[in-house]
Fold:
Amino acid sequence: MQRFIDLRSDTVTRPTPAMADAMMAAPVGDDVFGEDPTVNALEARMAAMFGHQAAMFCPSGTMTNQIAIRVHTRPGDEVISDEDAHIYRYEGGGTMANSGCSVRLLSSDRGRFTAEDVEAAINDPGATWLARTRLVSVENSHNRAGGAVWDIGELRRISGLCRSKDLAFHMDGARIFNALAVSGQRSEDVGPLFDSISVCLSKGLGCPVGSVLIGSASFVHEARRVRKRMGGGMRQAGFLAAAGLHALDHHLQRLVEDHRRAGVLGEVLSCSPLVQHLAPVETNIVVFDLKAGLSAKDFLEDLRQQGILAIQFGPARIRMVTHLDLTEADLAHVVGTLRSMATRNIPT
Ligand SMILES: *Cc1c(COP(=O)(O)O)cnc(C)c1O
Structure:
């Protein structure tokens, strides 16, 4: 079978041999009984990293986001997020179906809105005919916006606003480690700004499965009930959590390498006559629009013929994501292919 260079997502990585060894060697127990020592170690470590009391291991980032929304809200409440947020677009309508909430969607600067935007969207709690605004969610880094990273000053302002208005503040930090790597912010400074944080281990960190939901002890206690209700209580999950512990030790420092490689792709694309617009490349995500008259479908098929996979993000929009399984030789092949496609296909 042909080996494709797979840039569709950073979720496509396979465990490294060292990670697989760590997984198989993990001490395990029944996690629904709270008796899996490896899950407990991962949860304690992640909670401490982000300056919180507790954390809970889950199968996916969709589940950690959805549980957070469910715990923070009651049916009929309203959630504020940006209009391209994963919690709104890519979680199967979960906010509405699982929590019975409406969503107030803010237009934003590449996923990033301001405290003023939030304040203007909060419904008057005295107006009984309006939905009760209850939760604000930010995505950092922002997936659809091409890996855009939030400014910590704005997060502080929104956090202060949420506290003064008695709103919960959630971060969809599926790629928070990418955001921290480029901004130089520390997890223990960013974490306490939020009531809950969802972190994926299955993206840049290269684990096969797993996300962690972080918050106060009482929040996580309630979250465990919701996880069980949703069918997310796992038993000897330490085999999976061990991958997370291994990744925290060995795969955090190398994220800057993914960012450098994404930057190389960005440079090539920004010079390509096929490309209309490239979102600024801040982390490991590259999002670009093709020139008028070019279709993303044809472009992707062309790439596929050269052994490269990317993903469609709109009629003329494409996303590429760099990750652990991309080698320097792969990168060179992608760069060469993009350059040769540009000379073959100049639109007239
Ligand atoms: C990937 C992702 C998630 C969670 O996805 P799962 O596939 O359910 O783990 C949540 N938010 C963002 C921004 C993501 O990119």
Q: What stands out?
A: The chain has a mean pLDDT of 97. The pocket of pyridoxal-5'-phosphate is lined by residues 60-62, 65, 86, 139, 143, 172, 174, 200, 202, 211 (CB under 6 Å). Residues 328-344 form the longest helix (17 residues). Residues 29 and 35 are 5 Å apart (CA to CA).
